[in-house]
Amino acid sequence: MTTDTPARLLQLLSLLQTPREWPGGELADRLRVSRRTVRRDIDRLRELGYPVQATKGSDGGYRLVAGKAMPPLVLDDEEAVAIAVGLRAGAGHALEGVDEASVRALAKLEQVLPARLRHRVSTLQAATTPLTSGDGASIAPETLTVIASTVAGQERLRFGYRAKDGIESRRLTEPYRLVSTGRRWYLVAYDLDRGDWRTFRVDRVSDPFATGARFTPRELPTGSAAEYLRRSIHRRLDSNEYTYDVTFAAPAEWVAARLPAWLGRPEDIGDDDGGGGDSGGDGGGSCRLRASTSDPLEWVAMRLALLGCEFTVREPAALMECVRELGGRLARAGAPDLQG
């Protein structure tokens, strides 16, 4: 018989979190207590905010149902490892839909994982290679979790940083928010050495260290970390941003499903204004993409070539030239015997 009430409640909660209905007699047998004790324990869980639903019958039954708030979960070893591995796999790439909330969840989970389970998680991740369609830089999940923990705990963060020109420096910051753009993770923070707000690409951060020194968050000039990042990026891009105009011989929906979101969103233009040729899509029609970027022209040309349908570059002339050079290079690579 389990006489330790807190331990018994945790065991009961773990059973109830399995998606099924538990007869009262079966719960009593599992816990090695009386049915009356099971009923009292169910009442205690309800007082703690767990929505346990009871059903009438000869034996009665109990099921944990959805409530108004998210109660704490009890996970066994395998469940905890599975969740941690999944969160790590998503957190390492700035994929759309995987935002700061998932990183905070990973930070909380890894903080309480026993050493043996942390080792299992690291071993599993080291032995697997994800196949992702994202174009963002890969980031060590440990880097994200350290940063997320300092954001949540309002704790000063020190780290190494490599600027765009390759210059290395050490930064002491008051981290404000992590922001995902769909391609990259950014940290919005107050830089104590420079006395101003800054944005940092997380893939350029190294050796993040939580100093333990607490701080009172400052007021961000824009009020929103996402808006501050957007303005910061636009300021940097003003000097080297260019606009491109491309038509595709495929419907906009087909192209959008295969084109990285950061390249823009195409719009359908009908059957008579495309680039010609077989689209390879699910139907006829064509679409047009007009957007701006500061990414290297060679990179944009390669992404367009990988799309798998006919396309025509309308502007800029520099992108047209990049596409022609790429096409020629690929043609030569495919016919080495013809090279003189």
Task: Supply database-style keywords.
340 residues; alpha+beta; single chain; four-stranded antiparallel beta sheet
Describe the structure.
It is a single chain. The protein is built from 11 helices and 12 strands. With 340 residues, the protein is of the alpha+beta class. The strands form 3 sheets. Strands 7-6-5-4-8 form a 5-stranded antiparallel β-sheet. It has a 4-stranded antiparallel β-sheet with strand order 10-11-9-12, with helices on one face. Strand 6 and strand 7 (196-201) form a beta hairpin. Helix 5 crosses helix 7 (141-153) and helix 10 packs across helix 11. The longest helix is centred in the C-terminal third of the chain and has 18 residues, at 317-334. The radius of gyration is 27 Å and the shape is extended. 26% of the residues are buried.
Q: What is the general shape?
A: extended
What fraction of residues sit in β-strands?
Answer: 15-25%
Amount of helix: 25-40%
Query: Helices and strands: which structural class?
Result: alpha+beta
Number of strand segments = 12
- Strand order of the biggest β-sheet: 7-6-5-4-8
Low-confidence stretches: 272-283
The CA-CA distance between the termini, in Å, is 86 Å
| Annotation field: number of helices | 11
Could you spell the SSE succession in H and E letters? HEHHEEHHHHEEEEEHEHEEHEH
Main beta sheet: 5 strands, antiparallel
Oligomer classification: single chain
Structure summarized in a few sentences:
The chain has 11 helices and 12 strands. The protein is α+β, with helices and mostly antiparallel strands. The longest helix is centred in the C-terminal third of the chain and has 18 residues, at 317-334.
